Amino acid sequence: MHCCRLSLSACLIVGVQSQPDPNVCTPHGPKGEGPPLPLLPEQFMLKVEANILGWNHTIEVVEYYDSINNRGAVHNIYAGHISQTVVNYETKEIIRVRPGAGCHVQNLTANGFNIFGFQLQNGTAHIGSVADILKFGASYNETYIGTTYIRGIPADHWQSCLYNEQTNGTMLLDYYFTVPEHINAEGDSQIPLRLALNGTASNRKFIHGHVVPVNGTHSYSHVYEFFDVQFHPEFPDRSFEPQLGVVCPGRKSLKPLPKIPDQFSMSVEVVLPGMKQVFYMSEVYNYKSKTVVAYYSFTMNGSIVPTSYRSMDDFNTGLTYRINQNTGFCNVTPISLFSSDAESPDHVHVQMKSIASFIHYDTRDWQYQGITELRGMQAESWIVATNEWKPNWLTHNASSQVNSTWELFYTTDAWNTQGGLNKSTNMPIMSKVHWTMKTDKGKLVNGSFDMNHFHFDTANVDPSHFDLSPCFDSGNSKEFAFDILEMGIYNMVIANNTIGFYYGVAHSLATAAGISPTRIANVFAAEDIDKVTTVFFDLLGVPAVKGDAVDMIKQPSLTDAAVALELLINSVNAEEPFHVKFNYNGTEKSLTAKPDTLRNSFKQSQPEDSGSQQFSTGAFVGFGIAMLIIGAVLGVGILVFLHKRNKLNIPYNVQS
Ligand SMILES: *[C@@H]1O[C@H](CO)[C@@H](O)[C@H](O)[C@H]1NC(C)=O
Ligand SMILES: *[C@@H]1O[C@H](CO)[C@@H](O)[C@H](O)[C@H]1NC(C)=O
Ligand SMILES: *[C@@H]1O[C@H](CO)[C@@H](O)[C@H](O)[C@H]1NC(C)=O
Ligand SMILES: *[C@@H]1O[C@H](CO)[C@@H](O)[C@H](O)[C@H]1NC(C)=O
Ligand SMILES: *[C@@H]1O[C@H](CO)[C@@H](O)[C@H](O)[C@H]1NC(C)=O
Ligand SMILES: *[C@@H]1O[C@H](CO)[C@@H](O)[C@H](O)[C@H]1NC(C)=O
Ligand SMILES: *[C@@H]1O[C@H](CO)[C@@H](O)[C@H](O)[C@H]1NC(C)=O
Ligand SMILES: *[C@@H]1O[C@H](CO)[C@@H](O)[C@H](O)[C@H]1NC(C)=O
Ligand SMILES: *[C@@H]1O[C@H](CO)[C@@H](O)[C@H](O)[C@H]1NC(C)=O
Ligand SMILES: *[C@@H]1O[C@H](CO)[C@@H](O)[C@H](O)[C@H]1NC(C)=O
Ligand SMILES: *[C@@H]1O[C@H](CO)[C@@H](O)[C@H](O)[C@H]1NC(C)=O
Ligand SMILES: *[C@@H]1O[C@H](CO)[C@@H](O)[C@H](O)[C@H]1NC(C)=O
Questions:
Q1: What is the pLDDT of residue 354?
Q2: 534 φ, ψ to 5°?
Q3: Residues 178-194: what's their mean pLDDT?
Q4: What is the atom index within ligand 11 of the atom nearest the CA of 421?
Q5: How far apart are CA 455 and CA 465, in angstroms?
Q6: Which stretches make up the LolA-like domain (predicted)?
Q7: Distance 613 CA to ligand 10 centre (A)
Q8: Band of the pLDDT at 357, cuts 50, 70, 90?
Q9: Is the pLDDT assigned to residue 329 strictly greater than 60?
Q10: CA 162-164-166 angle, 5° bins
């Protein structure tokens, strides 16, 4: 009895020294009478209602069996709680998730008990046969008893007698299957309806984790009702995976996190379930340029129309440029030490959060959670638990305890975007954060937010996102133009590659002149009738506000920067002419600036934007997860900023 309390399934299979109990039954050889035995499938899904005499409660079990793919899982429903057991023969792990008790991982061994059995096939672990799991089949020397009715369903009745020497247990099994002519709701016939088993066994006690035989015997009686039996199952999503959002300490992770590119743009829907609020924004990252841009809008107190913002953090200069897109007004402030995309090594200077700063995310035990269908896409996800995440908007007390779990979902390799010649794969599509915190008063509070990511693009990160010209009036900026030496190349490498080219121009000029790339704005190229390509751009000044960034390039004044550019292009004695280096279909190309052509008085005849096809390559460099985390945190940082303005609370659900 005690053993049965430990595991229902154990009772099914284990039933102690010497001889079968003749009062139960006498084992015998095959009798060879009656109709052929029902054939059992290699895959099934069924529910069992288990009633064990003297237990005073019913247990329901959902079983998922897949011998073809070598996996099995069960859900035990007991006293209003569902606990889950997943047996992974590939990683040799048994994973149990119990409500309120978290997840436990155990090694799968040949002699340890597990409902799905264990076989060695060609030296590898394999799930047991269906006959052995159900304890039904020719090897059990079934005796045909005849037909009867079970729950109004015509049924064939088989009986077998099993004796287990180890437990000195004898049991009589009565199996009922639908007759071949009866088709169940799922379209299957000869499916199990009921198993009734009675028997006796030596008494055992569970002492210090071991089952120990004690004097005496007991008898038992179990009835298992099978329903919802599917012999041709379509296993629901994640049938063979622990539920999402549960961290299983010690579980083997089958896959590393996908690499995140060093530049990308995406839109984010931030969902705050606690507040029933949704917030939209889009974000652009450029790790090489050390810039982060966010687009968002909100309605200010007392206003009836929402205000749209484009906010850019420039870590080259340590400044935040917040441009009110309704009015064009630009507000320049130093990047806050508490900005969610920033970190500070010394509590004075800011720097862009990088993989190095997120190294704990990178080296942490991110666990692969398998495949899930999300928004109609196949997604893979990873989960990690941490107590290091303590955003200052949640708590200002460094000794507060905050436990959080992070889940990241990416589309599988088989999915890609069609939004550019350079297709993106492994698109991030969702992140989920859940935290619990103990307040100073000892109260437990929890909260969560989900983010849906979409419109992910690693290829077409348009330089216009980084355009700061609205923040500089004509007194603090200068228009320039220069010509390209190579003739007739416009249509070849620029027209269908403007994003790559314009980005290249800004970076080449900035690097050569020793200024932040964000000071080169409004880059534009056009070809005249003589096949000469001219490049136009604005050189921006230096804002009055000073930032405090790590490795800040000291920004020369507008005049000094203009002189530097002139030296670069107009100095006839230059040993090396200035080159514009840019990306073209994945390779670096270089064009020469025609010496002595830099000018700031010119007639600009900009044609209308032809909306030409654009492409460039997103260089996939392994910055790991850092960028995405920035995305997640950034979203929330801005939200908190908004809620502070509106004097709203952070989404907490008080637990106790
Ligand atoms: C085995 O079971 C039988 C029948 O219940 C009982 O008579 C016998 O004493 C048991 N043997 C041992 C070693 O427990
Ligand atoms: C079935 O009968 C065979 C032959 O008598 C015997 O070897 C085998 O152990 C029996 N199986 C069971 C489960 O009793
Ligand atoms: C089941 O209920 C009966 C009657 O109330 C009681 O005697 C017995 O101990 C209960 N069994 C268990 C396992 O709780
Ligand atoms: C499982 O097996 C591995 C090696 O195969 C061992 O390192 C680990 O400690 C085992 N875990 C448990 C819980 O026994
Ligand atoms: C075991 O190996 C043999 C020969 O390599 C192969 O024919 C057989 O299918 C394998 N069995 C299983 C279960 O993989
Ligand atoms: C099994 O045991 C129960 C309860 O002791 C009894 O009612 C039932 O008739 C038994 N069934 C068989 C097949 O012996
Ligand atoms: C168990 O049985 C043995 C021999 O029958 C006896 O010596 C022993 O005292 C018994 N133990 C208990 C706990 O009753
Ligand atoms: C928002 O407006 C309301 C009513 O005009 C006012 O009572 C409240 O203090 C304002 N809140 C903020 C944060 O300005
Ligand atoms: C955080 O997790 C630890 C370890 O699991 C636990 O002891 C602690 O109570 C948790 N704290 C909170 C606030 O949930
Ligand atoms: C910070 O939290 C700790 C433990 O939660 C508490 O003992 C301490 O008083 C708190 N400090 C402040 C300044 O609130
Ligand atoms: C860009 O256009 C030129 C001229 O039409 C063509 O030769 C070249 O292959 C195009 N490049 C790409 C990447 O489409
Ligand atoms: C772009 O690059 C790819 C792979 O390097 C190559 O297959 C393709 O032909 C190139 N396209 C053009 C237009 O050069």
A1: 61
A2: -115, 140
A3: 94
A4: 13
A5: 15
A6: 245-472
A7: 58
A8: very low
A9: yes
A10: 175
- Which of residues 627 and 159 earns the better pLDDT score? 159
Determine which residue's CA is closest to atom 13 belonging to ligand 12: 585
* Cα 12 to ligand 1 centroid, rounded to whole Å: 20
Kindly list the protein residues whose Cβ atom lies closer than 6 A to any atom of ligand 11.
491-492, 496, 585
- pLDDT tens, residue by residue, 592-618: 999 888 988 665 544 433 333 222 222
Q: What is the CA radius of gyration of the chain?
A: 34
Q: How far apart are CA 25 and CA 28, in angstroms?
A: 9
CA of 475 from ligand 3 middle (Å) equals 90
**Residue owning the nearest CA to atom 10 of ligand 4:** 107
Q: Which of 416, 41, 61 is nearest to 230 (CA)?
A: 41
Q: What's the one-letter identity of residue 143?
A: T
The amino acid at residue 549 is A
pLDDT at residue number 469 = 87
Amino acid type, 429: I
Instruction: Determine the atom of ligand 10 nearest the C-alpha atom of 439.
Output: 5
131 DSSP β-pair partners: none
For 28, the token pair is 């015998």
Q: In the numeric block, which tokens belong to residue 208?
A: 């210090």
Task: Answer for the pair 536, 523: CB distance below 8 angstroms, yes or no.
Answer: yes
- HEC per residue, 10-78: HHHHCCCCCCCCCCCCCCCCCCCCCCCCCCCCCEEEEEEEEEECCCCCEEEEEEEEECCCCEEEEEEEE
Task: Say how many Å lie between the CA of residue 109 and the centre of ligand 2.
Answer: 26
Q: How confident is the model at residue 349 (pLDDT cuts 50, 70, 90)?
A: confident
With CA atoms as reference, report the closest residue to 651 among 504, 440, 437. Answer: 437
- Whether 17 and 163 have beta carbons less than 8 Å apart is answered as no
Mutational test site, ligand 2, from 139, 164, 172, max ligand atoms within 8 Å of CB: 139
Rounded mean pLDDT, 358-375? 74
How many whole angstroms from 403 Cα to the centroid of ligand 9?
6
Give yes or no for residue 56 CB within 6 A of ligand 3.
yes
Instruction: Give yes or no for a contact between 75 and 62, defined as CB atoms under 8 angstroms apart.
Output: yes
Residue 107 near ligand 4, beta carbon < 6 Å: yes
Which pLDDT tens digit goes with each residue over 104-115? 998 888 776 677
pLDDT of residue 506: 92
Task: Provide mean pLDDT across the span 117-130.
Answer: 82
Quote the DSSP letter at residue 493: I
Percent over 90 (pLDDT), the chain: 32
Q: Checking DSSP bridges between strand 119-121 and strand 102-107, what pairing results, if any?
A: unpaired
DSSP string, 270-287: EEEGGGTEEEEEEEEEET
Place of tokens 């010496």: 595
Task: Report d(CA 142, CA 134) in Å as an integer.
Answer: 13
Q: What is the CA(586)–ligand 12 centre distance, in A? A: 8
Kindly report whether the global pTM for this prediction surpasses the value 0.85.
no
Contact between residue 134 and residue 101 where contact means Cβ atoms under 8 Å apart = no
